[in-house]
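Fold it.
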Amino acid sequence: MDYFNIIETFLTSLTSIVVALIGVGYFRRINENKLKNKSKNKLIDQINKDEIIHLSIREIRRKLNCDRICIWQFHNGGSFYTETPVQKMSITYERCSDGLEKNGPKNQNVLVSNLNGYVKQIIEGTMFYADVNDMNDIGLRSLAHSSGTRSHCAIPLYDLESKLIGILGCDWVFSNVPKDFMKKDKDFNDKFINLLKEDCKSLSDYL
């Protein structure tokens, strides 16, 4: 009798273990599916945001008749030995006229310290050149020439907390720039930049 009780107890325990393992596996699969769905939903959300940004900069490019328009975004790039964050910037969105080479692939993880003068002028609202030969910074002028750029302007992109998160830049390579852009008059320049900022007002919501 004791022998049968032992077998019965053993089988009961074994059944409980099997049921428990099946239950664990079932709930694990549910959690995995939830994580997959969450990841998929995030990806879909990002794709939708990317499409909105691409459509927006496409319309701005057409409106300004520029040949290249791109968005630089600031990001972290590791740390120095002093544990100070490495500040970097990369071109994350770009649209170009047919036949024009994109700058995005060769402008990834660029140290912000290498473009301090450029970023400073953008923040000050003075990165506005109908003729890039007027640029005082020889490095920036050479960089513009290497891309075939004849005219260039760029504005800062801020988030809701007024934190600088990106830059929107426009290049004219072989297309004609807007007439107002050709006038070396600060009032015209300010008006042009304000119109550009107005067009970009909603962009920061998607970056």
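Residues 48 and 206 are 10 Å apart (CA to CA).
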